[in-house]
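Deviation from plan, reported transparently: tryptophan complex.
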Amino acid sequence: MEIMLTGIRSTGTPHLGNILSVIIPSVSMSNKNTKHSSFIFIADLHSMVQIENIKTIKAIKDNTYKIAATWLAFGLNIDNCLFYRQSDVSSVTELAWYFNCFYPYQRLALAHAFKNENKKIDKGKISVGLFTYPILMAADILLYNAKIIPVGKDQLQHIEIARRIANFFNKKIGQKLFILPNAFLHKKNMFVPGTDGKKMSKSQKNYINIFSSDEILKKQIMSIRTDNKSVEEKKNPETDYIMHLYSLIAPMDKIEIMKKKYIKGGYGYYEAKIALYEYIIHKFSSERKKFIYFMKNKSLLDHILVLGSRKAKSIADERLNCIRKHLNFNSII
Ligand code: TRP
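Because the crystal trials were delayed, the predicted structure below was used instead.
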C-alpha cells in the first residue's frame, strides 16, 4: 500500500492559505481513500531552525497544539491515519545525519530557502539547522518510504532534494532501499492570496486566521488591499483579492451573484469584505468551535499525539534498523 505523508511546521495557527491548500485536501484524501495509508505529522523539529531564545522554544510546543487542533477541527479521522509529532520519533534525526553525510554540500547550498537569506547569513543569523532543513525533510519522507507528498508549490524543491537523496543513497548502497517520493499538488485552491494579494504566508504577515476572535478576523479581512474605485464604479472581479478569496470558499451561485455585483457597479469593497467575513464565519463555524474545544483540552491532544507517535515510532525504528544494517551499524531493536 502506498503511503501519503505530509507535515506542517508548528510556527503558529495555520492560516486560511494552509487550510485551503493543504489541510482540507489532505484530510479528505486521508479520510476517503483506502488505496493508501496516510501519515500526517507536526514538524516541530523544523520549527526549531528559527529558534531565538527560550520563549521561542516554548512557543513551538504551544503551536504544536494549535496545529493539532486545526487538523482535528477539520475532521481528520485518526483511526484512518498516523497523526504524530515529529520530535516524538527520534529515528528521523539519525536518518537525517546519514543523509547529511551522503549529500554534497554545494547542492544543498543552492536550495532556495537558504539562498534567499544572504543578508542574514552575513549577520550570522542563519543556523546550520536552516541549512540542512531539506535534509531533515527528506528523512521525514524516506524514513517511511512515503510515495505521495501533498505540499504547497514552495516545497517542490525540497521534494526534488528528497528524490535526489534517495537516488544517491540507493546508488551508493547498490540497493533500492528508498523509493522516490512524488510531490502532490492539490490543484484546486493552489494559490491563496493574502491581504496584500501576494501568496498568503506567515512570514509576510498578510494572513487571515479563521480561528481569531470575530473582531480580529474582521480586522484582517478589512485590511485586504483593493484599488480605490468608488462604490458606484464598476469593478473587475478577476483582479480583486476579496473576490478571489470569496471564490475559493463560497458555492458557485454565491460567487456568480457577487461577480455580477462587481461588474454592475454600485457595490463597494466594504460590502464585499463584509460578505466575505460573514461567509467565513458561517462556513467554518463548526471548525471554529471544535478548535476552541481542543485548545481547552490539551491533554486530549497530547493523548491523541502520543498514540500516533507510538505507532509511527515502531514503524520508523524498524526501518531505521534496516538502514543501519546496510551501514554496518549494530541493530537497535
Ligand atoms: N517544509 C514543510 C513546510 O514548511 C513542512 C514539512 C516538513 C514537510 N517535513 C515534511 C512537508 C515532509 C511534507 C513532507 O510546509
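DSSP finds 16 helices and five strands in the chain. We consider this an acceptable substitute for the interim report.
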